[in-house]
């Protein structure tokens, strides 16, 4: 990523040359491209612009005018794409790359993480950190260091968290101790333009070249959700489940962890490689700068449940418009066709109850009868999952028997 000061200074030098040669009148008014502590970064005069974009994660006093932001993005975009063949990747922290818990929230059945540290497996020991200064314990997600190393060859990466800056910087030290991945590109809650909402307006990357990895869709502005790859939540500590209102045991309570080779991060890395390859495909006839990674992401996602025709039964609340439900939208994003009523073309009935008319029809007509986790698992694993793992059976006809991803956080891979 370019240095903001250097980029604006470079243009100042060019302008000075134009003035010196007489090609621009000396009295030309400064456009005030950027501001630092109420002063224009170009002409040095007191100035400000309420509509300028604050880049507090670079410096708390830095604001860049909208036109200048567009110019800087375009300049960086061309360099990144044409010369470095990279895109942008915005990474959430909690539940995506790692999981943290306050020391006071560590449950009795998790005490072994501290009291028996020497006996812990090496993979756990090297990814578990007790941060006494912050009164917390942090567990890095399996494969995270390999993920960052390989992703950095394809993307310029940002950290973007709803946590405080002090926390974000501490986590960055664990993830990137050599400071080779993120540099100043660490955005925390206090850097956002709107409280409790993330947006790409403060990211120095064109939206058409940005991908986002995050476990929470709701924190992103609506028009940035096309950039989002939703991550399966990483619930290592018990408090992680409790804080979100879930009663399921965490990975630490079960004394297990995600797979280093088939977990969430290696799975999504394969998708990122595929998207990167398709975006930079030399066989494409369109101009590289005109391509949109959101369209590539949409194409890849649409292939997951392509040719599936789905009807839902007793999944949505009474009088709820099915088309508005997250499961309906998720299935369509994966390429499935969702229908309101059964017909011979239906391939799957998604239900919580094997006793409904539609469920019985599915059994009679030898259609797949699966619970909602089949859609969620296919979404998080980017692959149509074996239906037999998600069959609805008479013994499991109660809604509480079908926890969603948010309930536990790890799909079997």
UniProtKB/TrEMBL annotation:
The reaction(s) catalysed by this protein are: O-phospho-L-threonyl-[protein] + H2O = L-threonyl-[protein] + phosphate; O-phospho-L-seryl-[protein] + H2O = L-seryl-[protein] + phosphate
- Tell me the enzyme class: hydrolase
**What does UniProt give as GO cellular component?**
nucleus
Q: Name one GO biological process term.
A: response to salt stress
CDD domains from the xrefs?
BRCT_CTDP1, HAD_FCP1-like
Q: What is its EC number?
A: 3.1.3.16
Q: Which Pfam families match?
A: BRCT (PF00533), NIF (PF03031)
Per UniProt, residues of the BRCT domain are: 300-392
Where is it chiefly localized? nucleus
Where is this gene product found? Nucleus
**What are this entry's molecular-function GO terms?**
metal ion binding; RNA binding; RNA polymerase II CTD heptapeptide repeat phosphatase activity
The yes or no answer to whether the keyword Hydrolase is present is yes
Q: For the FCP1 homology domain, which residue ranges apply?
A: 82-254
Summary of the function given for this chain in its UniProt record: This promotes the activity of RNA polymerase II.
Question: How is the quaternary structure described?
Answer: Interacts with RAP74.
Stated name of the protein: RNA polymerase II C-terminal domain phosphatase-like
> Upper taxonomic classification of the species?
Eukaryota, Viridiplantae, Streptophyta, Embryophyta, Tracheophyta
